[in-house]
Amino acid sequence: MKKIITLLLLISVISTYAQNRYSTISTSTYTPMTRSEIMSVPMALQAKYNENQKYLYHLKKLVLELKTSIKEEPFLGRLNEEYGFLTFMEDKDLARATKSLNQSEIDINEIITEYNLFVSEQNSKKPATQNLPENQNPPESQQSQTNEVEDFLNEGNEYYENEDYSKAIFSYSKYLENEPNDTDVIFMRALAKSNIDDKYGAISDYDKILSMEGKVTPQNYKFSTVYNNKAYCLVELGSYKAALPLVEKALQLDKTEWFIWDTRAEILLNLGQLDKCISDCTKAINIEPNGNSYLVRGLARIKKGEKTKGCQDLSKAGELGEPTAYQKIKENCNKK
């Protein structure tokens, strides 16, 4: 059984330096630069060089780790090309190589995504295992394999609890190689993928679960939540119209969860249906007061021209811990 490869995407902070080429300062008012000012640019370049050098070595290490698991062509060949490019870049001006390294990271992620799709297709062709009669114990080797499979599940849960989502995804995937129809674990893997912004991967897992609706009895999730979560992945991708029928299906199944009303409210806000958005936010808040629903309702009210009420909602969102509330207050409430 082939492996699913996962990756916690890297986040690079790129600092840019700009200088006015057309100075209007006359020689009579010129002030000599201090030594610290003169050295600031080369020091900044050196800092960027050091940062990109670590970035490059991290990417090379990642490619080497992937090559131990990926043996199929053309994926292995593409990894070799990326490794060759990174080796070539070692002798270049790394202080100005951020763009090239970012592109290399994107290319590596594309290889991983395409390989995962390839492996998923291969795993879907795996025949279902036969259950042994109740009075027949499995061979010792099979029992050992069962224990190993359970270990992957336990590891995945532990990694998830510790918010180490990429390792959780890997462990869940190893478990699912042997239990491909365990939708409870597929659901957990989807959550982990969503938490590291692998929205398309999460949607793929939610689709697998929905394809078995009516055939399985979930223990750790509700199908209404699956419809909602897939819808919210589409929201985060900007596909509001595609998300709307999914969240409406979720509401048909369950009207008691605040987050489903909240998801539809966010969709309606982006579709310009402000009155319906405000109504859904209020329903979500009545079930459970939460920062996001106050945030969305506040933005909808401001768009309607109800600035006072809207800004009061944004303030309440901040009180409830919504991290973007105060930025929205600056943008919408502090202007005359």
Describe the structure.
The radius of gyration is 26 Å and the shape is flat. The chain has 14 helices and no strands. Among the domains are: 75 residues; 84 residues, Tetratricopeptide repeat domain (Serine Threonine Protein Phosphatase 5, Tetratricopeptide repeat, Alpha Horseshoe), CATH 1.25.40.10. By secondary structure, the chain is mostly helical. Keywords: Repeat, Signal, TPR repeat.
**Alpha carbon gyration radius:** 26 Å
According to CATH, the fold-level topology of the domain at 252-335 is Serine Threonine Protein Phosphatase 5, Tetratricopeptide repeat
Tally of alpha and pi helices: 14
CATH class of the domain at 252-335: Mainly Alpha
SSE run: HHHHHHHHHHHHHH
How would you characterize the largest beta sheet? Answer: none
Proportion of residues in β-strands: under 5%
Q: CATH superfamily assignment of the domain at 252-335?
A: Tetratricopeptide repeat domain
The geometry reads as flat
CATH architecture of the domain at 252-335: Alpha Horseshoe
Contiguous runs where pLDDT drops below 50 for at least 5 residues? 6-28, 128-132
Helix content: 55-70%
CA distance, first residue to last residue: 63 Å
